[in-house]
Every structure is written in C-alpha cells, then in structure tokens.
UniProtKB/TrEMBL annotation:
InterPro entries: Glutamic_endopeptidase, Neprosin, Neprosin_propep
Pfam families with a match to the protein in the record: Neprosin, Neprosin_AP
Domain spans labelled Neprosin PEP catalytic: 165-419
Entry protein name: Neprosin PEP catalytic domain-containing protein
Keywords from the named record: Signal
Native source species: Lupinus luteus
Presence of the UniProt keyword Signal in the record: yes
Keyword presence, Signal: yes
Cleavable signal peptide: 1-26
Amino acid sequence: MGYCCCSTMALVFCIWGMFLISVSSASRVGASRQKLEVNKHLNRLNKHAVKTIQSPDGDIIDCVHISNQPAFDHPFLKDHKIQMRPNFHPEGLFDESKLSEKQKEGSNAANSITQLWHANGKCPEDTIPIRRTKEDDVLRASSVKRYGRKKHRSIAKPRSADPDIISQSGHQHAIAYVEGDKYYGAKATINVWEPKIQQLNEFSLSQIWVLGGSFGQDLNSIEAGWQVSPDLYGDNNTRLFTYWTSDAYQATGCYNLLCSGFIQVNNNIAMGASISPISEYQNSQYDISITIWKDPKEGHWWMRFGNELVLGYWPSFLFSYLADSASMIEWGGEVVNSEPNGEHTSTQMGSGQFPEQGFGKASYFRNIQVVDSSNNLKSPKGLGTFTEQSNCYDVETGSNDNWGHYFYYGGPGKNPNCP
Ligand SMILES: *[C@@H]1O[C@H](CO)[C@@H](O)[C@H](O)[C@H]1NC(C)=O
C-alpha cells in the first residue's frame, strides 16, 4: 500500500515536472521564434544606410539611396522609373510665397518649422531620410504583421446613423468635409500642437483625408498630417505622418514608409520624424502646410510639405477608386478612446481646447482648399462638419480674407460635460 502510494506520488510529480519543462521550453521556442520574426521584419524595413544621423529625440535617421527605398520591394514597382518631380503643381489662391507680410502676421510660415534631426545633419543628394525602426517599435505592436498599420477603420463617416460603428472602434473625430463632386486633391495649413495622450494605446492626430469609394470594405484613403502616438513611436512627440489604404485599413497600406507604396524623392523631410517647434498656449503659433494632389499626366498622388518641398508620390496603381479621383475630402482631428467602463478618455485633440477659445488657444486648419479637375486650388463648396460627441471634441468653421475657409477644432476629451 505504502509503495503504491509513493509511486503514485512520484508519478504525479514526474508528470508535473514534465509539464513544467514542456511549458517553459514551449515559451522559449515561442520567444525565439518571435525574435526571429521581428529581426526578419527589421531587416526588411531598415535599408542599407549611406549615412546615419542621431536625432536629439532618440530617433536614428538613415539616409538611404533613393533607389533602395521600401517602395521598390513592391512587385509592381520593380521596373518603375522613379519620377523626381510632378509634371504640374496645383495653382490658385493663398500661395504662401505670395502672401504679404501683413497676411503672414500672427502665424509662422511653414518653412520655419523643421524636424528635430536636422540639428545633427542632413542627408546627401540621391538619398532619402528614413526613421529607423527599432526592435521595441515592433514589439509594441500587437503582432509583427500589425506594426505600422491602423488597428481599426479610422474614418469619420459624416451623418452616420450607425452608433455601433462609433462605439466599436472608439475613434472620435471633429472634422470639416466636402463630398458630392470629383476631387483631385486638397490643401490645408495645420496648426501644430502636442496633445496629451492618456493611455499608451491611444493617439491624437490632425490630418487631411483624401477618400475614394463608399465606406465599404474597399475604401481608398490617402492621409497626411501630424500625430502623437506612443504606441507607434514610443514617445509623446508630435510627428509628421502619412497613411494610405486601398481596402479600408485591412490588408493594404501603412503609416509612412513602413510598407512598400509611397515613393519618396525628398532628402530633407523624414516621415514619422518629430516636428519642431510646437505651438504654445497664448504664445507662439506654428503651422505646417500640406498639399496632396493628383498629377493630371501620370495620375500619381503627390504630396508637398510647405510650398516647395515635394516629398514624393503614391503611384496610381495602389488604388482602385483613387486611380480616378476622390469622392470626399475631410480635414480635422481624430483620437482613440480606449478607456474601459464607459468613461471617456482625457486624451486631447488639437490643443486640448474647444474651438470657441480661438486663436492662440484652440488649434486650427486654415486656407483649406480642394483641387478641381483643371488642377486649380479652389475654396471648398458646401463645407460640412461632423463630430461624434461635441461635448468632448468640437469643430467650428469660418471664413475671411486672410485665412480663406478655416476651422477651429479639438477639445479636452473627458470633462464634466463628457464624463
Ligand atoms: C507620455 O505621456 C504620458 C502621460 O500623458 C506619460 O505617462 C508617459 O510617461 C509619457 N511618455 C514618455 C516617453 O514621455
């Protein structure tokens, strides 16, 4: 009896021991497989650098030969002849280089804004600056595959009658928009702030959306602006970013140069790099101008930063609807609200102030324009506004001679009227 009991005990311990060993070796195998996968991804993303610049914010900027950039990993781009400049620039009102001193008053021109890494060097000609992806950047993503991608459909559908779409994704917007025509681009000058983010997995951004198609599974979108995203970048800095998708944020597209698609031609501006300086409450205001337009000749979608810096283009073949034209343009802010228990996040949008606060306090978009089929910049006709919860984040439009069509937007998120 005693023997039997002993042996049962031994067996139990033995099995338990084997279980422990197999659990720990399984997790070791899992960890090393993940490390392998992360390293493979880093090798794919980080191209051979001709020169490397250490940015004061901890970023590493790699100057990569222009023909060696991530875009050319795309099978359709293997034989693509890179275009160094667009055939046409959109023309029209509010060309900043033609503004009088009086008109410039109260707001700094975009060219006074730089990127932090410029303090420590420049990229040579025939290279483009790329923010190096570090192991930690990838490890913060839910999976290697999701790194550099938006997690949810990230688009405001004005007049949406479906509250589920809003509460499911937790994305909140305060935007101005136009629809009902064919658009060939958009422009805006965007006030730059550093909104506070409550949770690591939340973000706050201010951008232009160039949209094609219905709001179904095949939505096409080109996006550019500034964002604060601790998840994507590992800090709270305000960064210049772009995004694109041709299937409503599912399998195609990414931020910046984190997948092949966007072809960069500029050696001065790095996608995803920190912008400096930032506007301060009742103090200096800074803004950036962004233009996105479709080259009437080749059909590619180009992006310009300020009035001279042509960053590059999204080749037309990446898209379905946008291969022809855009059907909607949106301008404004978006935050993610990921608080549990139905409480609202205190993540700020814009400056964190409501629109009625006005200049120097609330964030703005000014000189918002669309590009028409003749490649002319025009004032937006029938500008609408949309916000899911105006007690949390709001938007207010206006127009005058200097700022053309403009709006103030944003808010603090959680407050007594937005519990
Ligand atoms: C970013 O801001 C949050 C609070 O808003 C803070 O908890 C966190 O430490 C900050 N992260 C960094 C890297 O500064």
